User: Fold this.
Amino acid sequence: MKRSRSLSVALLASLLSLFFFLGGCNAWRRDCHSSCGTLQNITYPFRLTTDRKACGNDFQVYDQLVYQLACVNNRTVMNFRSGKYYVQEISYEKQVIRLVDSDLQKGNCSSLPPYSSGLYPDFHNDYGVYYLHSAYTIIVFVKCSVPINNSEYKATTPCSSPDYLYFVIGNNMSISDLNESCKSVAKTAIDMTAVGEVDTSNYTQIQNLLPMGFELSWEILYTKCNWLSSPRCFFQSMTWFLIPARIFIGVLCLIFLAYKLRIRHIWMDATVEEFLTKHRNRTPTRYSYSDIKKMTHGFKEKLGKGGFGTVFKGKLRSRRPVAVKLLANSKANGQDFINEIATIGRIHHVNVVQLIGFCSEGSKRALIYDYMPNGSLEKYIFPQQESIGHLSWEKTYKIALGIARGIEYLHRGCDMRILHFDIKPHNILLDENLIPKVSDFGLAKFYPTEKSIVSVTAVRGTPGYIAPELFLQNLGGVSYKSDVYSFGMLLMEMAGRRSNFNAKAENSSQIFFPLWIYDQVNQGNDMELGNASDDEKEIAKKLIIVALWCIQMKPADRPSMGKVLEMLEGSMELLQIPPKPSLSSPTRVTNEDDATQMDTMGSSTISEIELVSQNHTESNLLSVIVD
Assistant:
């Protein structure tokens, strides 16, 4: 009781001190007021480029001030990476900003919005602070090479066009939904409730709505200031220290609170809760911890255990079977937990596992997925029980195709490119029909599709499947080709029906399977496939050749996942044997408890990986934390 009371007092004191502290630090930023043309009283969090640097909120993404506006030809302009828009009005009370497409011509029937990808969810992907207002609906303009007979594709008549120009209305449309003969040429939003009933098939009415613009809601985020690396932040911080009473009380209370409440865990919980609050309209169902206990019958039936935690079988109230992953030690301020929800919580694909819901109560976190009765692919590639036989070659081929389609969707089918960084047999789940599902996005990384290189500050993945450029910088930057490498190592194991690394191999040349099998294929030798038919041997050879292309040392020499699919689906006669992979690989981790993501490695990273390879022992394990 005494401890609880002291913690409450500490928390109250800290909140009061933070109130005065932040109030004193930010009040001077809110005193700025400016105008541009008809837009008056531009104030916090916004600022014009001509305002003094102390004005407005200085939150940055991609080195661009998120809340900064420009005054061009006496009109207020907001610049996004995806386009430029005129600001028509700002409601600070509702936190809503109205934008108009900059090049849209009023009264011109053929005038289209100037940008093909300039709206939600792109604004969210740009900055994470702007969201399309709920009253607005996305409208996408598409050009097709042939006439389209589809009720969702509405003609833009009476506007004349040399192409077949249609418009499609709806917030759920994605690139993958387009007819194969069509491409998106413009995208914006319209308020179909503002002028009463609108005939969505009448393009004249739609055209009249376009110049009215659209509204975005905004949230206020704050930049974390590095005092040592930024002179501006340093002097700004020194200004705050001139308020000695507030700072003194604030520092004392924060130190006391950190000591009593283990501040590290508080920050982690705050990070997760901030994310969940911000994205509450776009996340799966949230369950309480008591709900989790009920659906698993008190965690009665355990399906598996690993470094990530433990998986239990459960049932929803609808009797739908589910798998509940109870997380153990969330890493990087809960980033692995956030990654799972941010990734598979929003996307839907037949070859990506479905996230049904989640639980987050303090340190207790869980993820709820569709139950996969056939478990992971690992037990079919390396069966340890006689009751689990090898998959047929036809089924192996179909599973390989499904995995490739799932990864290709992550790379190209979403508004943001998603890199998985941990493709391996254990993370491929099989449903009742043996349809593969890519799972476990704890290490996933997101970046715009137009960028070719992604920044990572630590090696991530599982030894044996990690692309060499993640720890050898001279090979080139880290990109989606890193997932291609991991898929190649997985495909090689599927084709060889064995681990890529086998220290107990009778023939020393077979210790690292990819190098041995390359020599066999290149010399035209028959692979040891027992009683396999000619068609089955052709499937195996195709899988091996595609895998060899995927595991080339240099990322530039590897195909994209789209090209991988072409090779897998194409004729065997069109496949060429690639150059021999010049690589060495760390041992494949087989202990499920240790087959988790690696801890941040310092200068000894390469020597440790080489040591594992040289020792040829599968008990030598590396583990790394995500950045």
